[in-house]
Design brief:
globular, 12 strands, two-stranded antiparallel ribbon, 2 domains, alpha+beta, about 220 residues, Glucose Permease (Domain IIA)
């Protein structure tokens, strides 16, 4: 008995089932679209707020440039999940080591005060322009972005393998680890609590002028 000519019956998809599928897909599309719009509105609101806070230091266009190239927070989350970091708006606070001056960045503190524990990552794409010891900043790295902004990471405990001046880095690349170096001759440690000093600079009439990173860091904690 030959069965090759027998075509098995297939259960047809009923029109009501098709309509249900299309309605479900349509609702999902609306949901995704609404979520994207809400996120876009939130980001726009944050950009407007930062522009208002920074209006004395830089233009709205410069704020957009900075937010456009800064993609991640400069300190990676704890790999084990047990420790964290914190920061306050200490930009402009008085400093006395090396003479009276003002604080030109934000200090991101380690909850466990342990040097070498937290990893430091580049917040943007760029090229390592400066590296090595500074009496004030200890072991530091400076990254210049394609738009000309200079990102400064100071008081590091150690550098990542292969890090050198001229090296191209991408957002999220590890630069080194958080430490407490500085305020003395090369190798000085322990003069203050473990933290990352993070600064942003732009060129004004041939000189580097600092910007307050605080509001940008707040933005990065939301988008990272």
């Amino acid at each position: 008995m030959q069965l090759s000519g027998i075509i098995p019956k297939r259960t047809p998809v009923r029109g009501r089932n098709k309509r249900f599928v299309w309605r479900w897909l349509f609702l999902m599309l609306l949901f995704v679209s609404a979520a994207v719009q809400v996120r876009w509105i939130q980001k726009l609101g944050q950009q407007i707020m930062i522009s208002e806070k920074m209006e004395r230091q830089c233009s709205a266009e410069e704020v957009r440039d900075l937010l456009g190239e800064m993609k991640c927070f400069p300190v990676r989350e704890d790999r084990s999940g047990g420790e964290t970091w914190y920061y306050e708006n200490g930009y402009g606070d008085a400093r006395s080591y090396g003479g009276k001056r003002q604080h030109e960045g934000i200090d991101i503190m380690a909850s466990n005060n342990k040097a070498g524990y937290f990893q430091i990552q580049s917040v943007t794409d760029g090229i390592v322009e400066q590296m090595g010891w500074l009496p004030l900043g200890g072991y530091r790295i400076g990254v210049r972005s394609s738009t000309g902004y200079y990102y400064y990471y100071a008081h590091m405990d150690e550098y990542a393998d292969g890090m050198k001046i001229g090296k191209k880095v991408s957002c999220g690349d590890i630069l080194g680890t958080m430490g407490n170096t500085g305020y003395g001759e090369e190798g000085t440690k322990g003069k203050f609590a473990v933290h990352l000093h993070f600064g942003i600079y732009r060129q004004v009439k041939g000189k580097e002028k600092s910007l307050n990173p605080y509001y940008f860091l707040n933005y990065l904690t939301d988008v990272s």
